[in-house]
Amino acid sequence: MLSTITKVSKKPFFYPLVLFLVGLASYGLLLSKSGFYWDDWESVYLSALHNPGVSIHYFSERPLSVLIYLLLFPITKMTPLTWIIVEFGLRWIGILGIYYALCQVWPTRIFQNRWIGILLFVFPAFLSQPIALCYSRHFASFALYGISLSLTFLALKDQKRFWLWMSLSVLSGWGQIFMIEYFIGLEILRPVLIWFFLEQQENLNKKAALKKTFLLWSPFIVGLLVYFWWRFVSLPQSLSGSDPNNPSLLKAFLHSPFQIMVKLLGMSLQDLWYLVCAIWANGFTTEKFAFLHSKIAILAWTLAILASSLTVFYLQISKPTDDQTGKNKVFLQMLLLGFLAFFAGGISVWATARQITIGKWSDRFALAPLVGAAILIVCVIDWLMRTRGQKQALLSFLLAISIAIQIFNVNDFRTDWALQKGFYWQLAWRIPALKPGTAIIGRGTLTDKSSYYDGIYIVNLLFDKQVKTN
Question: Stretch 299-303: mean pLDDT, rounded?
Fold first, then answer.
Protein backbone atom coordinates (compact mmCIF):
# COMPACT_ATOMS: atom_id res chain seq x y z
CA MET A 1 0.00 0.00 0.00
CA LEU A 2 2.71 2.47 1.03
CA SER A 3 4.78 1.62 -2.04
CA THR A 4 1.79 2.39 -4.28
CA ILE A 5 1.20 5.72 -2.54
CA THR A 6 4.90 6.54 -2.84
CA LYS A 7 4.87 5.74 -6.55
CA VAL A 8 1.77 7.86 -7.19
CA SER A 9 3.13 10.75 -5.09
CA LYS A 10 6.02 11.12 -7.54
CA LYS A 11 3.70 11.67 -10.50
CA PRO A 12 3.72 15.22 -11.96
CA PHE A 13 0.02 15.74 -11.15
CA PHE A 14 0.37 15.00 -7.45
CA TYR A 15 1.92 18.27 -6.25
CA PRO A 16 -0.84 20.34 -7.90
CA LEU A 17 -3.33 18.05 -6.16
CA VAL A 18 -1.64 18.53 -2.77
CA LEU A 19 -1.56 22.29 -3.31
CA PHE A 20 -5.27 22.20 -4.16
CA LEU A 21 -6.10 20.20 -1.02
CA VAL A 22 -4.08 22.52 1.24
CA GLY A 23 -6.09 25.43 -0.16
CA LEU A 24 -9.32 23.50 0.29
CA ALA A 25 -8.50 22.83 3.95
CA SER A 26 -7.93 26.57 4.46
CA TYR A 27 -10.91 27.98 2.57
CA GLY A 28 -13.32 25.05 2.34
CA LEU A 29 -15.77 26.40 4.91
CA LEU A 30 -16.84 28.93 2.28
CA LEU A 31 -18.14 26.30 -0.11
CA SER A 32 -21.50 25.98 1.63
CA LYS A 33 -21.80 29.39 3.30
CA SER A 34 -20.19 31.84 0.90
CA GLY A 35 -21.57 35.31 0.32
CA PHE A 36 -20.82 38.77 -1.03
CA TYR A 37 -18.72 41.32 0.85
CA TRP A 38 -17.13 44.74 0.46
CA ASP A 39 -16.40 45.58 -3.23
CA ASP A 40 -18.20 42.44 -4.38
CA TRP A 41 -21.36 44.55 -4.31
CA GLU A 42 -20.26 46.91 -7.04
CA SER A 43 -19.95 43.96 -9.44
CA VAL A 44 -23.24 42.44 -8.25
CA TYR A 45 -24.91 45.74 -9.11
CA LEU A 46 -23.19 45.97 -12.51
CA SER A 47 -24.34 42.46 -13.31
CA ALA A 48 -27.91 43.36 -12.42
CA LEU A 49 -27.85 46.27 -14.86
CA HIS A 50 -27.28 43.94 -17.82
CA ASN A 51 -25.42 46.73 -19.60
CA PRO A 52 -21.86 45.82 -20.67
CA GLY A 53 -21.16 49.44 -21.63
CA VAL A 54 -21.58 50.58 -18.02
CA SER A 55 -19.22 47.84 -16.81
CA ILE A 56 -16.60 48.77 -19.42
CA HIS A 57 -16.74 52.43 -18.36
CA TYR A 58 -16.63 51.51 -14.66
CA PHE A 59 -13.40 49.51 -15.08
CA SER A 60 -11.78 51.97 -17.50
CA GLU A 61 -8.79 52.46 -15.18
CA ARG A 62 -8.08 48.71 -15.42
CA PRO A 63 -9.39 48.01 -18.92
CA LEU A 64 -8.94 44.24 -19.10
CA SER A 65 -10.47 43.63 -15.66
CA VAL A 66 -13.93 43.86 -17.15
CA LEU A 67 -13.31 40.85 -19.41
CA ILE A 68 -13.57 38.28 -16.64
CA TYR A 69 -16.92 39.76 -15.60
CA LEU A 70 -18.34 40.09 -19.09
CA LEU A 71 -17.42 36.45 -19.72
CA LEU A 72 -18.73 35.08 -16.43
CA PHE A 73 -21.70 37.29 -15.54
CA PRO A 74 -24.03 35.37 -17.91
CA ILE A 75 -22.80 32.03 -16.54
CA THR A 76 -22.58 32.60 -12.80
CA LYS A 77 -26.00 34.17 -12.21
CA MET A 78 -24.37 35.92 -9.26
CA THR A 79 -23.99 32.76 -7.20
CA PRO A 80 -21.31 33.35 -4.53
CA LEU A 81 -20.11 29.74 -4.66
CA THR A 82 -19.30 30.06 -8.36
CA TRP A 83 -17.04 33.03 -7.74
CA ILE A 84 -15.34 31.28 -4.82
CA ILE A 85 -14.44 28.44 -7.20
CA VAL A 86 -13.29 30.86 -9.93
CA GLU A 87 -11.08 32.86 -7.58
CA PHE A 88 -9.66 29.72 -5.94
CA GLY A 89 -8.84 28.18 -9.32
CA LEU A 90 -7.16 31.32 -10.63
CA ARG A 91 -4.94 31.63 -7.57
CA TRP A 92 -4.03 27.94 -7.80
CA ILE A 93 -3.07 28.30 -11.48
CA GLY A 94 -0.93 31.36 -10.81
CA ILE A 95 1.02 29.62 -8.04
CA LEU A 96 1.59 26.55 -10.22
CA GLY A 97 2.95 28.80 -12.96
CA ILE A 98 5.47 30.37 -10.58
CA TYR A 99 6.35 26.93 -9.18
CA TYR A 100 7.05 25.55 -12.66
CA ALA A 101 9.32 28.52 -13.47
CA LEU A 102 11.27 28.10 -10.21
CA CYS A 103 11.72 24.40 -10.92
CA GLN A 104 13.28 25.19 -14.29
CA VAL A 105 15.70 27.66 -12.73
CA TRP A 106 16.50 25.55 -9.66
CA PRO A 107 15.80 21.93 -10.63
CA THR A 108 17.86 20.70 -7.68
CA ARG A 109 15.70 22.61 -5.19
CA ILE A 110 12.28 21.04 -5.79
CA PHE A 111 11.78 20.63 -2.03
CA GLN A 112 12.17 24.37 -1.44
CA ASN A 113 10.11 25.29 -4.52
CA ARG A 114 7.20 23.17 -3.31
CA TRP A 115 7.20 24.82 0.08
CA ILE A 116 7.23 28.27 -1.56
CA GLY A 117 4.09 27.35 -3.52
CA ILE A 118 2.30 25.89 -0.51
CA LEU A 119 3.00 28.86 1.77
CA LEU A 120 2.06 31.27 -1.00
CA PHE A 121 -1.42 29.72 -1.22
CA VAL A 122 -2.33 30.15 2.45
CA PHE A 123 -0.04 32.95 3.65
CA PRO A 124 -1.94 34.65 6.50
CA ALA A 125 -1.12 38.20 5.43
CA PHE A 126 -3.89 38.08 2.81
CA LEU A 127 -7.22 37.55 4.53
CA SER A 128 -9.64 38.63 1.80
CA GLN A 129 -9.94 35.33 -0.07
CA PRO A 130 -13.69 35.20 0.81
CA ILE A 131 -14.25 38.44 -1.16
CA ALA A 132 -14.23 36.30 -4.27
CA LEU A 133 -16.14 38.37 -6.80
CA CYS A 134 -13.96 41.43 -6.25
CA TYR A 135 -10.64 39.59 -6.14
CA SER A 136 -11.31 37.41 -9.16
CA ARG A 137 -9.84 40.17 -11.31
CA HIS A 138 -6.73 40.29 -9.13
CA PHE A 139 -6.18 36.56 -9.34
CA ALA A 140 -6.96 36.53 -13.06
CA SER A 141 -4.00 38.91 -13.42
CA PHE A 142 -1.94 36.71 -11.08
CA ALA A 143 -2.83 33.60 -13.11
CA LEU A 144 -1.79 35.35 -16.34
CA TYR A 145 1.50 36.30 -14.71
CA GLY A 146 2.18 32.73 -13.58
CA ILE A 147 1.21 31.33 -16.98
CA SER A 148 3.39 33.89 -18.77
CA LEU A 149 6.39 33.14 -16.56
CA SER A 150 6.08 29.37 -17.00
CA LEU A 151 5.63 29.72 -20.79
CA THR A 152 8.86 31.71 -21.00
CA PHE A 153 10.79 28.77 -19.61
CA LEU A 154 8.79 26.27 -21.62
CA ALA A 155 9.94 28.21 -24.71
CA LEU A 156 13.55 27.98 -23.55
CA LYS A 157 13.22 24.24 -22.95
CA ASP A 158 11.26 23.43 -26.11
CA GLN A 159 13.22 25.13 -28.89
CA LYS A 160 11.13 23.47 -31.62
CA ARG A 161 8.06 25.38 -30.46
CA PHE A 162 9.93 28.39 -29.12
CA TRP A 163 7.96 31.00 -31.06
CA LEU A 164 4.61 29.50 -30.11
CA TRP A 165 5.33 29.39 -26.38
CA MET A 166 7.09 32.76 -26.38
CA SER A 167 4.26 34.45 -28.25
CA LEU A 168 1.73 33.10 -25.77
CA SER A 169 4.01 34.18 -22.90
CA VAL A 170 4.19 37.74 -24.24
CA LEU A 171 0.43 37.97 -24.78
CA SER A 172 -0.40 36.71 -21.28
CA GLY A 173 2.32 38.98 -19.83
CA TRP A 174 0.82 42.02 -21.51
CA GLY A 175 -2.64 40.89 -20.41
CA GLN A 176 -1.77 40.78 -16.73
CA ILE A 177 -0.28 44.29 -16.87
CA PHE A 178 -3.44 45.85 -18.28
CA MET A 179 -5.82 43.78 -16.16
CA ILE A 180 -4.72 45.30 -12.86
CA GLU A 181 -1.51 46.97 -11.73
CA TYR A 182 -0.97 44.90 -8.57
CA PHE A 183 1.57 42.49 -10.10
CA ILE A 184 3.29 44.80 -12.55
CA GLY A 185 6.40 45.07 -10.37
CA LEU A 186 6.90 41.30 -10.46
CA GLU A 187 7.77 41.58 -14.15
CA ILE A 188 11.31 42.45 -13.06
CA LEU A 189 11.70 38.85 -11.85
CA ARG A 190 11.55 37.50 -15.41
CA PRO A 191 14.98 38.73 -16.62
CA VAL A 192 16.59 37.73 -13.32
CA LEU A 193 15.20 34.19 -13.58
CA ILE A 194 16.16 33.99 -17.25
CA TRP A 195 19.70 35.05 -16.31
CA PHE A 196 19.93 32.37 -13.63
CA PHE A 197 18.57 29.78 -16.07
CA LEU A 198 20.96 30.65 -18.89
CA GLU A 199 23.92 30.74 -16.53
CA GLN A 200 23.09 27.27 -15.25
CA GLN A 201 21.69 25.48 -18.29
CA GLU A 202 23.62 26.91 -21.23
CA ASN A 203 26.92 27.90 -19.58
CA LEU A 204 27.08 31.17 -21.49
CA ASN A 205 29.62 33.80 -20.62
CA LYS A 206 28.26 36.89 -18.88
CA LYS A 207 28.19 39.08 -21.97
CA ALA A 208 26.36 36.49 -24.08
CA ALA A 209 23.95 35.66 -21.24
CA LEU A 210 23.18 39.34 -20.69
CA LYS A 211 22.51 39.89 -24.39
CA LYS A 212 20.22 36.86 -24.67
CA THR A 213 18.39 37.84 -21.47
CA PHE A 214 17.71 41.32 -22.83
CA LEU A 215 16.49 39.95 -26.17
CA LEU A 216 14.12 37.52 -24.45
CA TRP A 217 12.80 40.22 -22.15
CA SER A 218 12.51 42.97 -24.77
CA PRO A 219 8.89 42.18 -25.83
CA PHE A 220 7.82 42.50 -22.21
CA ILE A 221 9.66 45.83 -21.93
CA VAL A 222 7.56 47.08 -24.85
CA GLY A 223 4.41 46.12 -22.93
CA LEU A 224 5.65 47.96 -19.84
CA LEU A 225 6.48 51.09 -21.81
CA VAL A 226 3.04 51.12 -23.44
CA TYR A 227 1.42 50.65 -20.03
CA PHE A 228 3.42 53.46 -18.40
CA TRP A 229 2.60 55.84 -21.25
CA TRP A 230 -1.07 54.95 -20.99
CA ARG A 231 -1.15 55.09 -17.17
CA PHE A 232 0.80 58.31 -16.64
CA VAL A 233 0.03 60.26 -19.83
CA SER A 234 -3.16 59.09 -21.50
CA LEU A 235 -5.34 57.94 -18.59
CA PRO A 236 -5.01 61.06 -16.37
CA GLN A 237 -6.29 63.18 -19.26
CA SER A 238 -9.40 61.03 -19.63
CA LEU A 239 -10.33 60.90 -15.92
CA SER A 240 -13.22 63.18 -15.01
CA GLY A 241 -12.24 63.34 -11.35
CA SER A 242 -9.14 62.74 -9.25
CA ASP A 243 -7.07 59.62 -9.77
CA PRO A 244 -7.97 57.16 -6.95
CA ASN A 245 -4.63 55.39 -7.39
CA ASN A 246 -2.49 58.47 -7.87
CA PRO A 247 1.23 57.54 -7.57
CA SER A 248 1.83 60.63 -5.47
CA LEU A 249 5.15 59.53 -3.97
CA LEU A 250 6.66 58.76 -7.37
CA LYS A 251 5.69 62.22 -8.57
CA ALA A 252 7.06 63.80 -5.39
CA PHE A 253 10.34 61.93 -5.92
CA LEU A 254 11.22 64.27 -8.78
CA HIS A 255 11.14 67.24 -6.41
CA SER A 256 12.46 65.73 -3.16
CA PRO A 257 14.33 62.52 -4.04
CA PHE A 258 16.18 62.07 -0.74
CA GLN A 259 13.17 62.62 1.52
CA ILE A 260 10.96 60.38 -0.60
CA MET A 261 13.59 57.63 -0.69
CA VAL A 262 13.81 57.69 3.11
CA LYS A 263 10.02 57.55 3.38
CA LEU A 264 9.73 54.69 0.87
CA LEU A 265 12.47 52.75 2.64
CA GLY A 266 10.77 53.16 6.02
CA MET A 267 7.38 52.07 4.67
CA SER A 268 8.79 49.05 2.85
CA LEU A 269 10.87 47.85 5.81
CA GLN A 270 7.83 48.06 8.11
CA ASP A 271 5.85 45.93 5.66
CA LEU A 272 8.77 43.50 5.25
CA TRP A 273 9.01 42.97 9.01
CA TYR A 274 5.27 42.43 9.20
CA LEU A 275 5.11 39.86 6.37
CA VAL A 276 8.18 37.85 7.27
CA CYS A 277 8.11 37.99 11.08
CA ALA A 278 5.23 39.76 12.88
CA ILE A 279 2.39 38.11 10.95
CA TRP A 280 2.90 34.76 12.67
CA ALA A 281 1.95 36.18 16.07
CA ASN A 282 -1.65 36.38 14.80
CA GLY A 283 -1.89 32.62 15.23
CA PHE A 284 -1.47 32.85 19.00
CA THR A 285 -4.26 35.16 20.11
CA THR A 286 -6.47 34.07 23.01
CA GLU A 287 -9.62 33.29 20.98
CA LYS A 288 -7.71 30.89 18.74
CA PHE A 289 -7.07 28.57 21.68
CA ALA A 290 -10.46 28.74 23.40
CA PHE A 291 -11.04 25.03 22.84
CA LEU A 292 -13.53 24.72 25.72
CA HIS A 293 -15.81 27.44 24.36
CA SER A 294 -15.21 27.48 20.60
CA LYS A 295 -16.01 24.72 18.14
CA ILE A 296 -14.27 26.65 15.40
CA ALA A 297 -11.03 26.59 17.41
CA ILE A 298 -11.17 22.80 17.61
CA LEU A 299 -12.02 22.51 13.91
CA ALA A 300 -9.39 25.02 12.80
CA TRP A 301 -6.46 23.48 14.64
CA THR A 302 -7.53 19.90 13.87
CA LEU A 303 -7.68 20.65 10.15
CA ALA A 304 -4.50 22.71 10.28
CA ILE A 305 -2.45 20.03 12.03
CA LEU A 306 -3.89 17.27 9.85
CA ALA A 307 -3.28 19.14 6.59
CA SER A 308 0.21 20.17 7.66
CA SER A 309 1.10 16.62 8.71
CA LEU A 310 -0.17 15.11 5.47
CA THR A 311 1.79 17.69 3.48
CA VAL A 312 4.98 16.75 5.30
CA PHE A 313 4.17 13.05 4.75
CA TYR A 314 3.76 13.70 1.02
CA LEU A 315 7.05 15.60 0.81
CA GLN A 316 8.76 12.83 2.74
CA ILE A 317 7.62 9.92 0.55
CA SER A 318 7.87 11.78 -2.76
CA LYS A 319 11.51 12.64 -1.98
CA PRO A 320 11.69 15.94 -3.88
CA THR A 321 15.20 16.93 -4.98
CA ASP A 322 17.26 18.79 -2.42
CA ASP A 323 20.78 18.62 -3.84
CA GLN A 324 23.24 20.55 -1.69
CA THR A 325 25.63 21.08 -4.60
CA GLY A 326 26.23 24.80 -5.05
CA LYS A 327 24.10 25.54 -2.01
CA ASN A 328 25.72 28.91 -1.31
CA LYS A 329 25.18 30.11 -4.87
CA VAL A 330 21.52 29.05 -4.97
CA PHE A 331 20.94 30.55 -1.52
CA LEU A 332 22.24 33.92 -2.71
CA GLN A 333 20.10 33.67 -5.85
CA MET A 334 16.97 32.85 -3.84
CA LEU A 335 17.75 35.60 -1.34
CA LEU A 336 18.17 38.13 -4.15
CA LEU A 337 14.99 36.97 -5.87
CA GLY A 338 13.04 37.09 -2.59
CA PHE A 339 14.06 40.66 -1.77
CA LEU A 340 13.54 41.74 -5.38
CA ALA A 341 10.07 40.16 -5.49
CA PHE A 342 9.10 41.83 -2.22
CA PHE A 343 10.29 45.34 -3.06
CA ALA A 344 9.27 45.23 -6.73
CA GLY A 345 5.91 43.72 -5.80
CA GLY A 346 5.21 46.45 -3.28
CA ILE A 347 6.35 49.49 -5.25
CA SER A 348 2.94 50.05 -6.84
CA VAL A 349 1.49 50.19 -3.30
CA TRP A 350 4.08 52.45 -1.69
CA ALA A 351 4.04 54.74 -4.73
CA THR A 352 0.48 55.70 -3.76
CA ALA A 353 1.57 56.40 -0.15
CA ARG A 354 -0.19 53.27 1.14
CA GLN A 355 1.06 50.38 3.24
CA ILE A 356 0.17 46.76 3.89
CA THR A 357 0.11 47.39 7.62
CA ILE A 358 -2.17 50.44 7.62
CA GLY A 359 -5.90 50.36 6.86
CA LYS A 360 -8.73 47.87 7.29
CA TRP A 361 -8.65 46.55 3.70
CA SER A 362 -4.90 46.93 3.18
CA ASP A 363 -4.18 43.20 3.19
CA ARG A 364 -4.86 43.33 -0.56
CA PHE A 365 -1.61 45.25 -0.95
CA ALA A 366 0.26 42.15 0.22
CA LEU A 367 -0.71 40.09 -2.85
CA ALA A 368 2.40 40.80 -4.93
CA PRO A 369 4.95 41.16 -2.06
CA LEU A 370 3.77 37.76 -0.76
CA VAL A 371 5.77 36.10 -3.53
CA GLY A 372 8.95 37.61 -2.14
CA ALA A 373 7.97 36.94 1.48
CA ALA A 374 7.35 33.22 0.79
CA ILE A 375 10.69 32.89 -1.04
CA LEU A 376 12.57 34.68 1.75
CA ILE A 377 11.03 32.57 4.52
CA VAL A 378 11.77 29.26 2.79
CA CYS A 379 15.23 30.46 1.77
CA VAL A 380 16.24 31.53 5.28
CA ILE A 381 14.84 28.38 6.93
CA ASP A 382 16.62 26.24 4.35
CA TRP A 383 19.87 28.03 5.14
CA LEU A 384 19.56 27.98 8.94
CA MET A 385 18.32 24.42 9.49
CA ARG A 386 20.87 21.66 9.00
CA THR A 387 18.69 18.67 8.15
CA ARG A 388 15.59 18.24 6.02
CA GLY A 389 13.70 17.07 9.10
CA GLN A 390 14.44 20.33 10.90
CA LYS A 391 13.41 22.34 7.85
CA GLN A 392 10.16 20.41 7.48
CA ALA A 393 9.34 20.76 11.17
CA LEU A 394 9.59 24.56 11.12
CA LEU A 395 7.88 24.96 7.73
CA SER A 396 5.03 22.64 8.73
CA PHE A 397 4.62 24.67 11.93
CA LEU A 398 4.22 27.84 9.86
CA LEU A 399 1.85 26.02 7.52
CA ALA A 400 -0.36 24.89 10.41
CA ILE A 401 -0.52 28.47 11.75
CA SER A 402 -1.40 29.78 8.28
CA ILE A 403 -4.21 27.28 7.75
CA ALA A 404 -5.65 27.87 11.23
CA ILE A 405 -5.64 31.66 10.76
CA GLN A 406 -7.37 31.31 7.39
CA ILE A 407 -10.06 29.01 8.83
CA PHE A 408 -10.79 31.48 11.65
CA ASN A 409 -10.93 34.26 9.09
CA VAL A 410 -13.26 32.34 6.77
CA ASN A 411 -15.57 31.66 9.72
CA ASP A 412 -15.72 35.41 10.44
CA PHE A 413 -16.87 35.99 6.87
CA ARG A 414 -19.37 33.13 7.13
CA THR A 415 -21.02 34.63 10.21
CA ASP A 416 -20.95 38.09 8.64
CA TRP A 417 -22.89 36.78 5.62
CA ALA A 418 -25.54 35.37 7.94
CA LEU A 419 -25.86 38.83 9.53
CA GLN A 420 -26.09 40.48 6.13
CA LYS A 421 -28.86 38.18 4.95
CA GLY A 422 -30.82 38.76 8.14
CA PHE A 423 -30.47 42.52 7.81
CA TYR A 424 -31.44 42.59 4.12
CA TRP A 425 -34.46 40.37 4.79
CA GLN A 426 -35.64 42.66 7.56
CA LEU A 427 -35.15 45.70 5.33
CA ALA A 428 -37.11 44.22 2.43
CA TRP A 429 -39.83 42.77 4.69
CA ARG A 430 -40.45 45.89 6.77
CA ILE A 431 -40.56 48.37 3.85
CA PRO A 432 -41.56 46.28 0.81
CA ALA A 433 -42.96 49.21 -1.17
CA LEU A 434 -40.36 51.93 -0.68
CA LYS A 435 -41.28 54.84 -2.93
CA PRO A 436 -38.75 56.10 -5.52
CA GLY A 437 -36.77 59.08 -4.26
CA THR A 438 -37.08 58.13 -0.59
CA ALA A 439 -33.89 58.88 1.34
CA ILE A 440 -32.55 56.14 3.59
CA ILE A 441 -30.31 57.62 6.24
CA GLY A 442 -27.73 55.47 7.95
CA ARG A 443 -24.06 55.11 8.60
CA GLY A 444 -23.61 53.15 5.37
CA THR A 445 -21.57 50.24 6.71
CA LEU A 446 -24.09 47.47 7.24
CA THR A 447 -21.73 44.86 8.73
CA ASP A 448 -18.05 44.51 9.57
CA LYS A 449 -17.20 43.05 6.15
CA SER A 450 -18.65 45.90 4.12
CA SER A 451 -17.70 49.50 3.56
CA TYR A 452 -19.71 52.73 3.82
CA TYR A 453 -20.60 52.84 0.11
CA ASP A 454 -21.76 49.20 -0.14
CA GLY A 455 -25.13 50.18 1.29
CA ILE A 456 -25.80 52.25 -1.83
CA TYR A 457 -25.50 49.22 -4.10
CA ILE A 458 -27.44 46.94 -1.75
CA VAL A 459 -30.39 49.29 -1.18
CA ASN A 460 -30.69 49.94 -4.90
CA LEU A 461 -30.60 46.21 -5.62
CA LEU A 462 -33.42 45.70 -3.11
CA PHE A 463 -35.72 48.55 -4.11
CA ASP A 464 -34.86 50.01 -7.52
CA LYS A 465 -37.38 48.56 -9.95
CA GLN A 466 -35.22 49.62 -12.87
CA VAL A 467 -32.52 47.18 -11.82
CA LYS A 468 -33.26 43.79 -13.36
CA THR A 469 -32.11 41.37 -10.69
CA ASN A 470 -31.88 37.67 -11.42
Answer: 89
